[in-house]
Amino acid sequence: MTFTDVHTAYGYGDLPRLMSLMTGDEKHGPAATSTLDVLWVLYDRVLRVSPEVVDAPERDRFLLSKGHGPMAYYAVLAAKGFFPESLLPGFGAYDSPLGHHPDRVLVPGAEISSGSLGHGLPLAVGSALGLRAQGLSEVAVWVLIGDAELDEGSNHEAIAYAGAIGLERLHTVVVDNASATHGRPGGIAARFEAAGWSTATVDGRDHQALYEGCTTPHPGRPHAVVAQVEAKV
Question: The pTM is what?
Answer without folding.
Answer: 0.93
